[in-house]
Amino acid sequence: MKLQNEKTIWQLVDQKGPVFETLSESVWDVPETNFQEVSSCALHRETLLEQGFRVTECAGGLKTAVMGESGKGGPVIAFLGEFDALPNLSQQANVSHPAPITPDGNGHGCGHNLLGAGALAAATAVKDWLEQTGTPGTVRYYGCPAEEGGAGKVFMIRNGAFDGVDCAISWHPFAFTTVCPPSSLANVCMDFVFTGRSSHAAMSPHLGRSALDAAELMNVGVNYLREHMLPTSRIHYAYINAGGKAANVVQSETRIRYMIRAEKLEDLFPLQKRVENIAHGAALMTETQVDIQVLSGMANLMPAPKLEKLMQHNIEELGPLPLSPTDYHYAQDIQATIPQTDIVSAYSMMEIPYQENVSIFNEIIPYRPYFTKNILGSTDVGDVSWIVPTVQLLATTMAVGTSLHSWQATAQGKSSLAHKGMLHAAKIMAATAINILENPSILEKENKKRDYKAIIPKTVEPPSTHEPR
Q1: Closest by alpha carbon to 318, among 426, 232, 418, 415?
Q2: Phi, psi of 106 (to 5 degrees)
Q3: Rounded Cα gap, residues 5 and 2, in angstroms
Q4: For 1-45, what is each residue's pLDDT tens digit?
Q5: Which of 125, 198, 260, 443 is buried deepest, with most CB atoms within 10 A?
Q6: How far apart are CA 401 and CA 160, in angstroms?
Q7: What is the DSSP letter of 336?
Q8: How many CB atoms lie within 10 A of CB 449?
Q9: Distance from CA of residue 191 to its chain's centroid?
Q10: Strand pairing partners for 78?
C-alpha cells in the first residue's frame, strides 16, 4: 500500500520544524512536575494560538491542561501531548557527565518536553493539510499534565475532555523506533494512613497504640501476599511519614504509600482489595484505625492492531533517521557513562539481538502486536485506549541503554538527535492520521465498546504531586 500525500505531510512537518524545536527547548528550560506545569502549558497554549487552533484552556477541568482544535466534521483525531518533568533530575544539556543546574531540581528525564512538542508538530501538519486539501475531518491536540504518576488523562476523561474523539495518536521518546506494543501495567497509587495513640514508650507503653507497628505489620502481610499473586503483578511501597524520630514515643500516625500494578484492570481490582484487607487486618491487630486514600490510577493499554499496522507502514515508508557523525559521537560519550548491563538489557527488553558498539539504534524494528516477555511501566494513555482506539510510537531520541528517568535522558533532551527523532516521530504520526482521514472505515474495524471503569473514584480530586511511574 502506497500512502497518498506522504511527501506533502512530511514537508509540512519540516516547514515548521524550527517552531517545535524551539518549543521543546523552552519547555525543557522550565521543568515542572505533576499538575504544576503552568509555564509549560502556557508555552503550548501560545503555540496553538500562533498556529491558528481554536483553544480550550483548562481542558477537562485541569488548570494545566489545554486543547487545540482545527477543521470540521469527522473523523476527529486526537494527538496526545505531555510536558511534565520529574523531581531531582536537574541536569545541564548536551554534556556527558552529571551536572545539575539546580541541586535537587526538576528535569525532563523522560523526554516529555519532546513528547508534547512532537505531538503538536504532527497535529499542526495535519491541520495545515486539512486546510490545503479541503478534506473533511477534525484534528485536536491535547496538552495533558501529570502523566508521571498523577494520571492527568484519567481526570480529563472523567470530565468529558475526550468526548467526540474517534481515535488517539501519541508517541514517547526512546532509544528505539517502533510501534509501541500495548504492553503496560494497570496501577493504583494509594496512601494508607494509620492512626493510633501516642504515649511514653517507657513509662506507659501499655497506653500506646502504635501506628508504625500497624504499617510494619501491613508490610509483612503484603510480602507474604507476593507468593500468591500473578507473576506479572507488582507491589511497591514507601514510607511518607514514619511517625517521627523519637524512639521513646509511641508513634500515633504513620502514612505509607503503595503502588499496586497488574497486567490487566480485571486483575488489578481484586489485588487492590486484598492489599486493603491486609491493611484492615494490621489495624485490627494493633487497635489502630486506617484511612485508605486512592491518589491516582491508570488502566493497561488496549490494542488497536489495524492502527498499529498502519503506523508500522509509515515507519517503513519514512525510513531511518538522518544522522550525522556529531550525533553518533555524543551518543558514544553518553553511552560511556552507562553500565554495559543496562545496554544489554535495553536490547533484551525490545526482544532484539544485542549489537555491540552501537550507540544509536537506527534500524527498522519489525511490527509485533505485543511483547512476549516484557511488560513496561504504566501510563495514563492506557485509559484513553479504553474509550477510543489508540496507537503509540516509540521513537529514537537518545543513546542505546539510556534509562528513562535518568540524568542522561535529561542531558540529551536538547541534542540534535532529540530534535531529529522528535520530528521523525511527528512525520510518522501525521502520516498515520492522514491515512485515517482518507480512509475513515479503518476506525470502524477498531471501534469496540469496552467496559471501562476508572480506578480513581469520582470523589478524588487531582493531587498536587505524586511519585513518578
Answers
A1: 426
A2: -80, 160
A3: 9
A4: 444 455 899 999 999 999 999 999 999 999 999 999 999 999 999
A5: 125
A6: 39
A7: T
A8: 6
A9: 21
A10: 140, 168
